[in-house]
Amino acid sequence: MTYAEEMTEQLVPIIRACEVLGLSRSRYYRQQPQPEEADVAPASEAPVDEAPVAVKPEPKRQPRSKRHPRALTEVEETVVREVLNSERFQDMSPYEVFGTLLDDDSRYLCSVRTMYRLLAKYGETTPRGRQRARGHYRKPELLANGPNQVWSWDITKLKGPQKWTYYYL
Fold it and tell me: What pLDDT score was predicted for residue 142?
């Protein structure tokens, strides 16, 4: 065991230990044992037509689960979906649902953004408010049977004899 290793075991930072011993930090790390590299199959065992194949090393630790620890559980997601799709809130946006739950029930389920994420996850992000179909616009047909019944205007712009001269009728 080297002096640098003894000092780092006593919780002395590596940089300080190297300064005291007069070593560069890169030299300290170069002297450390290297992790074992991937094993390569010997050429005698490899088939004649193929090059040696590197063997993938075993993973040293278990991969993390993809679910964040603060994410909603399946039960909580179900509760939020039931609330969002209940008859009371089915026509309200998540912002309105969030505010109503806090004001009326003093109840916090999740953030507004999480509500939107859940709706998107299950394909329910269509407009939730009461939608009214647009009526078809028709040009009005006016019929005058006498004077002063229908008024209209028409401004016609005609070019004049010179540039920037117009006649308005």
Answer: 87
Q: Has residue 11 been placed in a domain?
A: yes
Domain that holds residue 1: 1-33
| Residue 22 located in a structural domain | yes
The whole-chain average pLDDT of the chain stands at 81
Q: Tell me the DSSP string of 95-118.
A: HHHHHHIIIII----S-HHHHHHH
* Cβ contacts of 81 within 8 Å, gap of 6 or more: 118, 122
pLDDT tens-digit map of 117-135: 999 999 888 776 666 777 7
- Please tell me the distance from the alpha carbon of residue 134 to that of residue 115, in angstroms, as a whole number: 29
The structural domain count of the chain equals 2
pLDDT (mean) for 7-34: 81
DSSP for 75-98 reads HHHHHHHHHHTSTTTTTS-HHHHH
Answer whether residue 114 is part of any domain: yes
3-state secondary structure of 60: coil
Instruction: Note the Cα 75 to chain centre separation in Å.
Output: 23
